[in-house]
Amino acid sequence: MATTYEQITARELKPALLELDGISRETIEAHYKLYQGYVNKRNEILGKLDGVDLSSANQVYSDLRSLKVDLTFAIGGIKNHEIYFEHLGGIGGDPAGAFADLVKRDFGSVDAWKADLKATGLAGRGWAWTAYDWDEGRLFNYLGDAQNTFPVWNATALVALDVYEHAYFIDFGTDRAAYIDKFFDNLDYDVVNDWVQRYGIRK
Ligand SMILES: [Fe+2]
To answer: Would the pLDDT of 134 be above 70?
Structure first.
């Protein structure tokens, strides 16, 4: 396939991520390696797609299918984890500022937003996201089962809650609910508010 692409590299892990409250350095280091794996996979798949000969039809379609599905998994894995790692390392508590205004408008209260995101995380298999949907003009807590299911077009994730077992099993065993509570305790809402401003999301 005559496309060109650039190799990308993994973002560095913020030092604060190694000193989270209740989520261990061991977990974060293992988790970061998974993220690096998604970056490597993305580069590898794009390289393979460059080598696919579209003129030899039948075999190509099955190869193409698996490469293109895997590409969504890899790129989804990169984006999800870049949000996750970037907005941890804070002091949790209740959000203030623009994000808090959006949450209160669209969920009624901060507690209601937290309760809904937590329940979504307990119901999902991989992710729960608080995303601003540009067409709806509001926040939703969307559910994801994997890196590539079920993001919605034209929505921007502002909070990404990883509920894969790798995110918590070392520290919490099967107690996902306790992990989600700690996730909130470690959120950096300044980072989330920076994104709200950068993306130009207005109440
Ligand atoms: Fe993860």
So the answer is: yes
Written as one letter, the residue type at 172 is F
pTM for the full model? Answer: 0.95
| Model confidence pLDDT, tens digit, residues 145-200 | 999 999 999 999 999 999 999 999 999 999 999 999 999 999 999 999 999 999 99
Cα 128 to middle of ligand 1, angstroms = 12
Instruction: For residue 140, report the phi and psi dihedrals to the nearest 5 degrees.
Output: -135, 150
Please choose, from the candidates 76, 88, 86, the residue with its C-alpha nearest in 3D space to the C-alpha of residue 38.
76
Q: Find the 164 Cα to ligand 1 centroid distance in Å.
A: 6
Task: Report the separation in Å between the CA atom of 57 and the middle of ligand 1, taken as the mean of its atom positions.
Answer: 36
Instruction: List the strands of the sheet with 155-162, edge to edge.
Output: 138-144, 127-133, 155-162
